[in-house]
Design goal:
With about 350 residues, this protein is of the alpha/beta class. It has helices at about 35-40, 95-100, 110-120, 135-145, 150-155, 180-185, 200-205, 225-235, 245-255, 340-354, and strands at about 1-5, 10-20, 25-30, 50, 55, 75-80, 80, 105-110, 125-130, 160-165, 170-175, 190-195, 210-215, 240-245, 260-275, 280-290, 300-310, 315-320, 325. The longest helix is centred in the last third of the chain and has 12 residues, at about 340-354.
Length: about 350
């Protein structure tokens, strides 16, 4: 089936459409060479149409072990070439069949380089994926529709659940759209994990007397989450806290800082970040459209611990007196890189000393 991507400024890209249905979302790009299934199932992409810049997608198939959540949350997927003959000893099916299974609209055979250059120049844009035969009235209605906000409530767990590790450090995980490999990273290190929905109260978290609290990744504008920010503020002086991605932004806002929207965000598995405490540069996996405003951190008794090499944005903070720290990137990254898994050990050391 023939299909097309129409951006909010009227630019059109034509291609082949896999999976039925029209969709609307914020069009972003990801520069990772691998990890397409992890991208597809990362809840942080909720509400977005993701363009993969690497030209060949699907060459090693899919497997349930690679999934980062129970289902894809993207609004659509755009790729250059869809591999029709994947080969990998771990694969359980093709990427195309996986997209169809979850009815994710996918446009392929598209000039993804041109789309990426467009977004880099103009910033992220609203776009729609429709068939070539779509009625103009339907196209106009989609283009006029509002993008969803506060997507955290769409991706958070509905009920509290437990990942047991008897005798291990007790971690209260606040799920704003958590990736499975974050839970795996904590559990494999012996942590006894309780995962709470985003609506949990500080009183309920503290009632379980955890050794530490983890603030997860998730989608959307952190400033839409005022109730969550206020809840985290009540935990600041009570327990060690570690935040990743959206959790990093929420921690900064709870401390009194501010955030802002980036022009086109950081999305990929090849983003260099400098650790200002050691001077080392690590390659990181990232997926965020917002950043902590550096000038808003002045006077908050925090230190900027990490900085993006490409654009100098804040990538990590640590409190100078309280056991609180966070990073903007993903140290648990699946399928990698693994340069920054040491941060989970640091969190365990903080909990052990508390």
């Amino acid at each position: 089936m023939k299909g097309k991507l129409i951006l909010s400024d009227g630019t059109v890209f034509h291609g082949e459409l896999l999976a039925a249905g029209a969709t609307v979302g914020e069009v972003v790009f990801n520069t990772g060479m691998t990890g397409y299934q992890e991208v597809l199932t990362d809840p942080s992409y909720c509400g977005q149409i993701v363009t993969m810049t690497y030209p060949l997608i699907g060459n090693y198939g899919v497997a349930e072990a690679f999934a980062q959540s129970r289902q894809p949350f993207v609004k659509g997927f755009i790729i250059g070439e869809l591999c029709q003959t994947p080969s990998n000893w771990e694969m359980e099916g093709s990427f195309g069949s996986y997209l169809q299974r979850f009815n994710v609209p996918c446009l392929y055979g598209v000039d993804t380089r041109a789309i990426t250059k467009k977004i880099r120049n103009h910033g992220t844009m609203k776009g729609i994926i429709v068939s070539e035969e779509a009625a103009q009235a339907d196209v106009d209605a989609l283009l006029a529709s509002e993008l969803s906000c506060c997507q955290v409530m769409d991706v958070t767990t509905k009920e509290t659940y437990h990942m047991s590790n008897p005798g291990g450090l007790k971690v209260a995980v606040l799920d704003f759209g958590i990736k499975q490999n974050i839970l795996n990273s904590l559990h494999q290190r012996g942590c006894d994990i309780t995962v709470y929905p985003a609506t949990v109260s500080a009183e309920e978290v503290l009632a379980s007397n955890p050794d530490g609290v983890f603030l997860s990744n998730g989608p959307g504008d952190p400033k839409d989450l005022q109730d969550i920010i206020q809840m985290v503020r009540q935990l600041l002086e009570k327990k060690p806290l570690f935040g990743i991605c959206l959790g990093h932004q929420i921690l900064a806002l709870a401390l009194g800082a501010d955030t802002y929207k980036l022009k086109f965000g950081h999305r990929g598995a090849n983003q260099p970040v400098k650790n200002l405490l050691t001077g080392k540069v690590h390659i990181t996996s990232q997926n965020h459209g917002y950043s902590v405003k550096e000038e808003s951190l002045k006077g908050l008794d925090v230190t900027i611990s990490h900085r993006a090499v490409n654009d100098d944005t804040v990538e990590g903070i640590r409190h100078n007196t309280l056991p609180l720290f966070s990073v903007q990137y993903h140290p648990e990254a699946a399928p990698g890189p693994d340069d920054n898994t040491y941060l989970f050990e640091e969190f365990m050391q903080l909990m052990g000393r508390a």
